[in-house]
Amino acid sequence: MRFLYVYLFLFIISCKQKNESINAQQIIDATIQNSGASKVSSSKISFKFRDKSYEAFRKNGRFKLSRRLKNDTITIEDYITNTSYQRSINNTKLSVNDSLKRSYSNAINSVHYFSVLPFGLNDAAVQKRILPSRKIAGKDYYKVEITFKKNGGGEDYNDVFIYWVGKKDFLIDFLAYSFHTNGGGKRFRAVGKQHFSKGIRFVDYINYKPTDNEVKLIDLDIAFTNNKLQKVSDIHLEDIDVNLID
Fold first, then answer.
1. CA 91 → CA 77, 94, 176, 202, distances in Å?
2. Which neighbouring-strand residues pair with 2?
């Protein structure tokens, strides 16, 4: 019997060591693969978000991300590429000052960025760090912190993200981030409905903010569990259409 106890002890230690040996890069690689986000790099994806239509074309590292707002008489379209920004009204190109370019570009990029997560988490400017694991609603999660290098990290390189990745399915169910634009703040998002198109996972979110501004970003999962977050909005993607490019 003593040998059985020794065997069980060694087995538990071995499992623990194996579990703890996984690193942040491996977790992100797995969630990109399991969510189908690896397919995003060669695709044309369109969807509606609130009152606007969005379209993204990506191929061989090049991209064109657009946003279109249309009413009875006016169509306003903005798009960004790897190197430029352009706005047009009723197909007539407009000149836009630099501050508005930054504002519009950031708004467009933000919607497209969140729409295809975890795609983008292996970009060159991304820095990954594994945090202590957490259990939420009985499910075990890896916690991965994402920060950005100043060089290549964009205007919002100071933003910090945390992702909760299921230890069994390697899918992101929760994320949190701190931001500095418009006075700054923190948000926590819980995945709602899932959509699958051409093998790519898209998700709707319930968006929260902390009721206590002093709570740390890393502790927003605890605040969520303790009902210390206030709902801000629902984030739904509609009419998702995906075309994969060979």
1. 8, 9, 38, 30
2. none
Q: To which residue do tokens 């504002």 refer? A: 103
Amino acid identity of residue 194, one-letter, is Q
- pLDDT at res. 155: 66
Contact 24, 129 (CB under 8 A): yes
pLDDT of amino acid 161: 97
Instruction: Write out pLDDT tens, residues 137-180.
Output: 999 999 999 999 877 766 666 899 999 999 999 999 999 999 88
- Distance, in Å, from the CA atom of 216 to the CA atom of 191, rounded to the nearest integer, reads 21
* Domains of the chain, earliest start first: 24-244 (2.50.20)
Q: What are 158's two structure tokens?
A: 């100071």
23's tokens: 């690193």
The whole-chain average pLDDT of the chain stands at: 89
